[in-house]
Design a protein that fits this description.
The complex is a heterodimer of chains A (about 525) and B (about 140). Chain A is an alpha/beta fold and about 525 residues long. Chain A contains 16 helices and 23 strands. The N and C termini of chain B lie close together (about 10 Å). In chain B, strand 1 and strand 2 form a beta hairpin. The radius of gyration of chain B is 14 Å and the shape is globular. In chain B, the strands form 3 sheets. In chain B, strands 5-4-7-6 form a 4-stranded mixed β-sheet. In chain B, strands 3-8-9 form a 3-stranded mixed β-sheet. A two-stranded antiparallel ribbon of chain B has the order 1-2. Classes of the chains: A alpha/beta (about 525), B alpha/beta (about 140). At the A-B interface, helix 8, helix 9 and helix 12 of A face helix 2, strand 8 and strand 9 of B.
């Protein structure tokens, strides 16, 4: 997280705010129009249609991207299949070298991509500089290393018979990226697919197609043509065309449950594997002993609660349900609300901004709708609860106040992912009560446990039905820590070398070194 | 209807009282007519979770395979409207109001016209309505 200090001051105003992409002095160039990235080239969409791309910072369009159709998906699949054999047969050293070169290129363009990502998504540039882009760099390096350690196994079935197991690439895969971390989630998907020797066709989320095209500009001369292909456009047209194509060997998806089911349905039709990561409603549990001392750890725990506002709450693992032990509720929440009240919201390109813009008008209206239903259900608004009115260029952007609703776990605001800076808070009496509330949800992606008691932390961590339980921390996403869901939060894992298995076939050579016939015939 | 495990085909509108689990605004009905005229019959499925959760997904009729634990909430503009049975259990105290918002749809949903998408607003049922719907 020390990257902020090293970032160049170029491209900022005298107040230290990054100049908006495309404006004179900005570190980010913006072309009036972007085509698809196919076979290492920029290819105009077959039907010649383009769509506006809006920055949530201003609510206004700043460029155009291809509004692709299924023909463009076919072109991308053609390019990927043309590259499939050569990339699949490349040595592990060659693949690792390409992944490391991608990482180096992203790192060399860290500020540019961080500003582009902030402009594209609305997230604060302090997050993209310190988290999104450095994590993407590290992810490619992690899988460059992981691929070098890839080993098959052999077993001696009997003295003269040996079973060899080789990893073989699946071939061409389809990958659909969400809007909340357009570059980091792309890295999470692309790096293991390439490391395992696959070529990919990537479909970015409809609201965030542009920053990944800036990434493509950075790596286009590094990656062999056709290994990475990017097609932009509406999910209902090209997302479906890609996911249902008989020309892909696997589909990877991050998004909501209905599309997740549809993806698995298409995969079933083609009898191919899928990995789906589908969101959550993560409990963040604070036991009374966090307040035993007024120290650095308590300060960390308070920040741990306020992390619901990280990336404006647009995180699948947003700690959006805070469960606080009854005996400390008043004192602890007072400290937390004070911290929340000091969140600075504004221009995401200002490095002092903590809370940026929601990704789209759709997100903003959804959040407002949830707060409305929370009020109808009887939840108490402890802070926030309204759209944030900002001035000037930001007046049409999608800003919402950091909000806390107090209520009970049966309310819809406790049961459904809001994907905004809205925390639902309730109390529990003891360990059993905390566990019951924590697991009383359809989802099981993430959870947080805060306590000074290691035994309690361990028991809770093992008993919570979620794929990741952050213990005395939250929102850390290091490469090498497996990430994925229990229950309806998805199927499969990401962010770990086990992904190489998810993106490989197992080839078994069963070899007899005996000359003797079986004797049956 | 019963309060047991919901399943496809559950009666979700009380015919005598007219309490519906899902209704549509005039703009939504107009958009539905427009989409049907352009693309043929459609269906809705209420999504949940993550980026585009809580959005009503609009598909060509039959595109999304309805499972044995999904619940048919009713019809809007002559089109069936479904929800996952597990999600229904925690949403059943609220009425869903289909409407239209500005902007492209997300996920694999069909648009509700040019630069328009379907959205859901919600209303908590009154105690009297809940009593009718839950048969208590």
């Amino acid at each position: 997280m020390a990257v902020i200090d090293e970032v160049t001051s170029a491209g900022t105003t005298s107040e230290g705010v990054y100049v908006a992409p495309g404006q004179p002095g900005s570190v980010v160039d913006v072309k009036p129009r972007y085509e698809n990235f196919i076979g290492g080239h920029w290819v105009a969409p077959a039907k010649g249609q383009y769509m506006h791309n809006i920055s949530p910072v201003t609510g206004h369009a700043f460029t155009e991207v291809a509004r692709s159709t299924p023909e463009d998906v076919e072109l991308a699949l053609d390019a990927a299949h043309a590259a499939e054999d050569a990339w699949g047969e490349s040595s592990l050293a060659e693949r690792a070298a390409v992944l490391n070169a991608i990482a180096d290129a992203i790192e060399a363009n860290l500020t540019m991509l961080a500003v582009a990502e902030s402009w594209e998504n609305g997230k604060p540039v302090r997050e993209t500089l310190a988290a999104d882009i450095p994590l993407a760099v590290d992810h490619f390096r992690y899988f460059a290393g992981a691929t070098r350690s890839l080993e098959g196994r052999s077993s001696e079935i009997d003295k003269d018979t040996v079973a060899y197991h080789f990893h073989e690439p699946l071939g061409v895969v389809g990958q659909i990226i969400p809007f909340n971390f357009p570059l980091l989630m792309a890295a999470w998907k692309i790096a293991p697919a390439l490391a395992a020797g696959n070529c990919t066709v990537v479909k970015p989320a409809s609201p965030t197609p542009w920053s990944i095209l800036k990434l493509a500009e950075v790596i286009q001369d590094i990656v062999p043509p056709g290994v990475i292909n990017i097609v932009t456009g509406p999910g209902g047209e090209i997302g479906k065309a890609l996911a249902s194509s008989p020309r892909i060997a696997k589909i990877g998806f991050t998004g909501e449950t209905t599309t997740g089911r549809l993806i698995m349905q298409y995969a079933a039709e083609n009898l191919i594997p899928s990995t789906v990561e589908l969101g959550g409603k993560s409990p963040n549990i604070f036991f009374a002993d966090v307040m035993d001392e007024d120290d650095e750890f308590l300060d960390k725990a308070i920040e741990g609660l306020v992390l619901y506002a990280f990336n404006k709450g647009e995180v699948c693992t947003c700690p959006s349900r805070a469960l606080i032990q009854e005996s400390i509720y008043d004192r602890f929440m007072e400290r937390c609300l004070d911290r929340i009240g000091r969140i600075t919201q504004g221009n995401p390109l200002d490095p002092t901004t903590m809370l940026g813009a929601q990704n789209s008008a759709q997100q903003l209206e959804k959040i407002a709708g949830y707060v409305d239903i929370g009020r109808q259900e009887g939840a108490e608004v402890l802070i926030g609860g309204e759209r944030t009115g900002l001035d000037g260029d930001l007046s049409d952007g999608y800003y919402y106040e950091p909000t806390v609703l107090k209520g009970h776990n049966d309310m819809r605001v406790f049961q459904e992912e809001i994907f905004g800076p809205v925390l639902a808070v309730t109390t529990f009496t003891d360990e059993a009560d905390a566990l019951k509330i924590a697991n009383d949800t359809l989802y099981g992606l993430g959870a947080g446990v805060w306590t000074r008691n290691g035994n309690l932390a361990y028991r809770m961590g093992r008993a919570i039905k979620a794929g990741r339980v952050w213990t005395n921390c939250y929102h850390l996403y290091p490469a090498g820590a497996a990430f994925g869901g229990y229950k309806i939060s998805g199927v499969g894992r990401e962010n770990h070398q086990m992904m190489l298995e998810h993106y490989s076939q197992t080839k078994n050579l069963l070899v007899s070194y005996s000359t003797k016939p079986l004797g049956f015939f | 209807m019963t309060t047991g495990d919901p399943g496809v085909g559950d009666a979700t509108v009380d015919e005598r009282s007219g309490v519906a689990r899902v209704v549509a605004t005039p703009s939504a009905l107009e958009a539905i007519d427009h989409v049907i005229a352009e693309r043929g019959p459609i269906m809705f499925f209420q999504s949940g979770g993550c980026c585009d959760g809580s959005m009503p997904m609009c598909f060509a009729d039959g595109e999304f395979v309805i499972g044995s634990h999904d619940v048919r909430l009713g019809e809007v503009g002559g089109c069936p409207f479904y929800i996952d049975g597990r999600q229904f259990k925690v949403w059943r105290h609220t009425q869903l109001i289909l409407d239209v918002g500005i902007g492209e749809p997300e996920g694999f949903s069909l648009a509700a016209g040019v630069d328009r998408h379907f959205i859901i607003r919600s209303r908590v049922f009154t105690m009297a309505e809940q009593a009718i719907l839950e048969g208590t």
